[in-house]
């Protein structure tokens, strides 16, 4: 009997995009570690949204959105207002789950990744509304 295609199998372009995202997040995490950050969470999910990377250096806590595109400019443009709201809501849920009493500063950063380029770390990429 011939094998039938799985009706819920993801499309090949979605599988490739997922692999690219995982690779970009790994590069971004390595870059942050090299800058002295400790990675607290990666790909953390809540009903309110997902956080790509949560990292800490001394009393600074950062929530990092990683965007991989063909160019760094395209990656920067992909962090729209809707994504910012989702990230802020997920950060609030993360903090409720993992309180950080010694943190005195928090910010939302972006890590832009493009093929053949050094990741670009945008500190304070946006403010939570």
**Integer average pLDDT:** 89
Instruction: Specify Rg, calculated over alpha carbons.
Output: 16 Å
**Sheet with the most strands, sense and barrel status:** 5 strands, mixed
Question: What number of structural domains do the residues give?
Answer: 1
The third-level CATH topology is: Trna Endonuclease, Chain: A, domain 1
Percent range for helical residues?
A: 25-40%
Secondary-structure element string: HEEEHHEE
What does the model show?
There is one protein chain. The protein has 129 residues and is an alpha+beta fold. It has a five-stranded mixed sheet. It has helices spanning 12-34, 72-77, 81-97; strands at 38-46, 49-57, 60-68, 105-113, 120-126. The mean pLDDT is 89. It has one domain (12-126): Trna Endonuclease, Chain: A, domain 1, CATH 3.40.1350.10. A hairpin with a 2-residue loop joins strand 2 and strand 3 (60-68).
Topology:
Layout: H1 12-34, E1 38-46, E2 49-57, E3 60-68, H2 72-77, H3 81-97, E4 105-113, E5 120-126
Parallel strand pairs: 3-4
Antiparallel strand pairs: 1-2, 2-3, 4-5
């Amino acid at each position: 009997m011939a094998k039938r295609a799985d009706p819920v199998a993801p499309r090949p372009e979605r599988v490739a995009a997922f692999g690219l995202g995982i690779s970009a997040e790994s590069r971004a995490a390595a870059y942050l570690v090299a800058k002295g950050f400790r990675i607290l969470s990666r790909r953390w999910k809540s009903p309110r949204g997902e956080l790509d990377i949560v990292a800490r250096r001394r009393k600074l806590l950062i929530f990092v959105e990683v965007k991989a595109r063909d160019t760094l400019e395209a990656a920067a443009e992909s962090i729209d207002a809707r994504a910012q709201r989702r990230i802020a809501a997920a950060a609030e849920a993360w903090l409720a789950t993992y309180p950080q009493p010694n943190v005195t500063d928090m910010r939302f950063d972006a890590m832009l990744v493009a093929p053949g380029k050094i990741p670009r770390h945008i500190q304070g990429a946006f403010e939570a509304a």
